[in-house]
Design a protein that fits this description.
Order of helices and strands of chain B: EEEEEEEEEEE
Structural class of chain B: mainly beta
Order of helices and strands of chain A: EEEEEEEEEEEE
Distance between the termini of chain A: 41 Å
Strand content of chain A: over 45%
Helix content of chain A: under 10%
Shape of chain A: globular
Largest sheet of chain B: 7 strands, mixed
Radius of gyration of chain A: 13 Å
Oligomer: heterodimer
Number of strands of chain A: 12
Shape of chain B: globular
Distance between the termini of chain B: 36 Å
Number of helices of chain B: 0
Number of strands of chain B: 11
Helix content of chain B: under 10%
Chain lengths: ~110, ~120
């Protein structure tokens, strides 16, 4: 079945540091890929998405590129801020969105001033 | 628009008690979902409803029942709570299950403790 593996946390960075959170997936066909973010005490919200190979999703300075050859969708940001402290979840839905979302276990990011 | 709302925000139960978690959305979405979030486990799907009048089991349905009361509301019931059901529960909705790239919108969660 479909699955998502993302890097274990927690990740602690200083403000303005570069961020990478790795995400790889296993799926048949061409899934859609997502990054969701959960701020403390809140529900999840969509950060970015990509629906086909080589697509780049971007939002709020975050980027991720759908790499089918490496089955990856790594999240990057060039300069993190304290306000980026949150838990980040990689997720996929099956080909054509025909299945429900499958989530990774989440990576907690803390950014210190 | 309120988006997805959940009640209650917090609840403490004793083993064997029952309760219903309520969820409502005002985005006219067809599909609704219940997840539980446990430390180190990510989110796991309990039940979902692809459209009004239909419900299906997700990854971890045991010990739960659901009702899709109408298009707006989707409730989750614990008939006889167990300590293993201590978790944070999230309701979500989306325009369609099966929509490629479709975004799910999440409620703020219910933190449930079973003693």
């Amino acid at each position: 079945g479909n699955s998502v593996t993302q890097m274990e946390g927690p990740v602690t960075l200083s403000e303005e540091a570069f961020l990478t959170i790795n995400c790889t997936y296993t799926a048949t066909g061409y899934p859609s890929l997502f990054w969701y973010v959960q701020y403390p005490g809140e529900g999840l919200q969509l950060l970015l998405k990509a629906t086909k190979a080589d697509d780049k999703g971007s939002n709020k300075g975050f980027e991720a590129t759908y790499r089918k050859e490496t089955t990856s969708f790594h999240l990057e940001k060039g300069s993190v801020q304290v306000s980026d402290s949150a838990v980040y979840f990689c997720a996929l839905s099956g080909q054509g969105g025909s299945e429900k979302l499958v989530f990774g276990k989440g990576t907690k990011l803390t950014v210190n001033p | 628009n309120a988006g997805v709302t959940q009640t209650p925000k917090f609840q403490v139960l004793k083993t064997g008690q029952s309760m219903t978690l309520q969820c409502a959305q005002d985005m006219n979405h067809n599909s609704m979902y219940w997840y539980r979030q446990d430390p180190g486990m990510g989110l796991r799907l309990i039940y979902y409803s692809a459209s009004e009048g239909t419900t299906d089991k997700g990854e971890v349905p045991n010990g739960y029942n659901v009702s899709r009361l109408n298009k707006r509301e989707f409730s989750l019931r614990l008939e006889s709570a167990a300590p293993s059901q201590t978790s944070v529960y999230f309701c979500a909705s989306s325009a369609l299950v099966g929509l490629a790239g479709g975004e799910q919108f999440f409620g703020p969660g219910t933190r449930l403790t079973v003693l």
